[in-house]
């Protein structure tokens, strides 16, 4: 069964470009973006890794750690990193898992449990389902899952927007509407009664329908 929002992110030990890690220990009290790639030296993924390296300060500002994954070995990640820097202007500045035994890919339901063999003999198409984004909270639970095809590069501005929403709604009893961006109005959560809302928002709210109660974004 596929991992669902609210499930505890599976723990694991793995070799990375920054040494061996135990995932839950590495997370600590941070938010995490875990993102995966079918194969090193693939074109779309090259652009994604470089883009994420340039955006790392934005994730740092939000207290989000970055962790990449490919089923190729760590030494190939290091060589790929040189190409990424040359073509994208920035090399990965975050750890990359070398998932050569497919353990993490299987734990996160990206590859079938029966997958085995030499990762270097596999093609990107063999691993095309290893194109996921998982956002994991400090409680080690999965907050979001995105799955992309190999031909569509990921939109990291959207991922930053989602993180802003997740972090806001984790600390305030609100929800964010379609296309919401940081600083825009939000919706009072349905779990908040009108009596509670009057206490939290004494200035009142806009109510186009009784079930849509709009307030400025809490500070």
UniProtKB/TrEMBL annotation:
CDD domains in alphabetical order: PRX_1cys (cd03016)
Annotated PROSITE patterns: THIOREDOXIN_2 (PS51352)
Pfam families: 1-cysPrx_C, AhpC-TSA
Domain Thioredoxin: 3-168
Source taxon at top rank: Bacteria
InterPro entries: AhpC/TSA, Peroxiredoxin_AhpC-typ, Peroxiredoxin_C, PRX_1cys, Thioredoxin-like_sf, Thioredoxin_domain
Record keywords: Antioxidant, Oxidoreductase, Peroxidase, Redox-active center
Protein family membership: Belongs to the peroxiredoxin family. Prx6 subfamily. Belongs to the peroxiredoxin family. AhpC/Prx1 subfamily.
Protein name per UniProt: Peroxiredoxin
Annotated organism of origin: Bradyrhizobium quebecense
Lineage: Bacteria, Pseudomonadati, Pseudomonadota, Alphaproteobacteria, Hyphomicrobiales
């Amino acid at each position: 069964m596929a991992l669902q929002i609210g499930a505890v992110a599976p723990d694991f030990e793995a070799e990375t470009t920054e040494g061996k890690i135990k995932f839950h220990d590495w997370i600590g009290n941070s938010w995490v973006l875990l993102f995966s790639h079918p194969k090193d030296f693939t074109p779309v993924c090259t652009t994604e890794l470089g883009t994420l390296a340039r955006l790392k300060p934005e994730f740092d500002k939000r207290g989000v750690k970055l962790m990449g994954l490919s089923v190729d070995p760590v030494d190939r990640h290091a060589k790929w990193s040189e190409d990424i820097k040359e073509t994208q202007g920035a090399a990965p500045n975050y750890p990359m898992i070398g998932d050569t035994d497919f353990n993490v890919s299987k734990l996160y339901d990206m590859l079938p449990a029966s997958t085995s063999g030499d990762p270097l003999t596999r093609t990107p198409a063999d691993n095309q389902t290893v194109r996921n984004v998982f956002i994991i909270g400090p409680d080690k639970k999965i907050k979001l899952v995105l799955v992309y095809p190999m031909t569509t590069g990921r939109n990291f501005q959207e991922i930053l927007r989602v993180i802003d929403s997740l972090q806001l709604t984790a600390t305030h009893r609100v929800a964010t509407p379609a296309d919401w961006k940081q600083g825009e109005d939000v919706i009072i959560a349905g779990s908040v009664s009108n009596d509670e809302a009057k206490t939290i928002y004494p200035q009142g709210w806009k109510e186009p329908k009784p079930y849509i109660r709009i307030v400025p974004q809490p500070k």
